[in-house]
Design a protein that fits this description.
The complex is a heterodimer. Chain A has five helices and five strands. Chain A is an alpha/beta fold. Chain A has one domain: 3-Layer(aba) Sandwich (Rossmann fold), CATH 3.40.50.2300. A five-stranded parallel sheet of chain A has the order 2-1-3-4-5, with helices on both faces. The longest helix of chain A is centred in the C-terminal third of the chain and has 14 residues. Chain B has one domain: Four Helix Bundle (Hemerythrin (Met), subunit A) (Up-down Bundle), CATH 1.20.120. The two termini of chain B are 12 Å apart. The chains are: A alpha/beta, B mainly alpha. Chain A: It comes from Fraxinus pennsylvanica.
Chain lengths: 132, 155
């Protein structure tokens, strides 16, 4: 029996959490586990890009906006320029519309506020179901 | 047997009252409830773990802010960045009063008001310490209630 989160190939949906806040990483990991996602967490955009360069792939990336070493917009631009078409969701606590817009224009599919809630994940799932 | 189950009920009620009080007095918000909803049998102490992680990790964030405030002149961009990190972490555990003080700090930061930042930061630290004590008491009591529950469970 396949859960609603399994892809057609019968694998678990995989998520990459990219955030410099270890509390957020812990919370989001737990939240995603509840939805039966597999998740991996890294601390900044460069680590995310390096994972993809090493051949790893994820169904969804939750990308924080502000991070040291490489921030969300830069990492998103790099991933898109590498031809990565996975869904990238920007996660930000900055309220400014212009900042969110700039982040979205870097190549995001969606932008949501953190911390994520069950409701946010459920809405995202509905959107992702359309894509996949 | 009825004594122990009424004792259990009393303890649960006391714990619930403690929690309601934290919400009624504005210390915590909805995010704390979100964390509680993630708790389950496999992770029965998830909220306490996250809060402990927060208090452990935020020590360096507070130090960063303090150091930035001691600079002359103050680098407000750097200060804002440090506070943004601290505020983000605090929001993620549902620290409502603390979030309010951080927002006030951010306003002073944006207008380059060093004195305002320093004053507000004293409030931030006060709220931070107060919440820590209250949550420590709450989790300690929650653990006691958990122990009584286990002791009262029929063999």
């Amino acid at each position: 029996m396949m859960s609603k989160n399994n892809l057609a190939l019968g694998q678990k949906f995989s998520v990459l959490i990219v955030d410099d806040d270890k509390i957020i990483r812990r919370i989001h990991k737990m939240l995603l586990t509840k939805f039966e996602f597999e998740s991996h967490a890294v601390e900044n955009g460069k680590e995310a890009v390096d994972l993809y360069i090493s051949g790893k792939n994820f169904d969804l990336i939750l990308m924080d906006m502000e991070m040291a070493v490489m921030d969300g917009p830069k990492a998103t631009r790099e991933l898109r320029s590498m031809g990565i078409n996975n869904v990238i969701v920007g996660v930000t606590s900055r309220g400014s519309t212009s900042e969110k817009q700039a982040f979205t224009e870097a190549g995001l599919d969606y932008c949501v506020e953190k911390p994520l809630s069950s409701e946010t994940i459920t809405s995202l799932l509905k959107e992702l179901a359309k894509k996949y | 047997m009825s004594n122990s189950s009424s004792r259990e009920r009393n303890l649960h009620r006391q714990l619930a009252n403690m929690k309601h009080s934290l919400f009624d007095q504005g210390y915590l918000d909805e995010q704390f409830i979100q964390l509680e909803e993630l708790q389950d049998e496999e992770n029965p102490n998830f909220v306490e773990e996250v809060v402990s992680l927060y208090y452990w990790d935020s020590v360096r964030l507070i130090q960063n802010i303090e150091q930035a405030l001691e600079q002359n002149p103050i680098d407000f961009a750097k200060l804002d960045n440090h506070m943004h990190q601290f505020k983000g972490s605090s929001c993620s555990i549902g620290a409502k009063k603390l979030k309010k003080e951080c927002t006030q700090f951010e306003k002073y930061c944006k207008t380059g008001n060093g004195e305002g930042c320093k004053r507000t930061f004293q409030q931030v630290k006060k709220e931070y310490a107060t919440l820590k004590k209250k949550l420590e008491r709450y989790f300690q009591f929650a653990r006691q209630v958990g122990c009584v529950e286990k002791a009262c469970r029929p063999k």
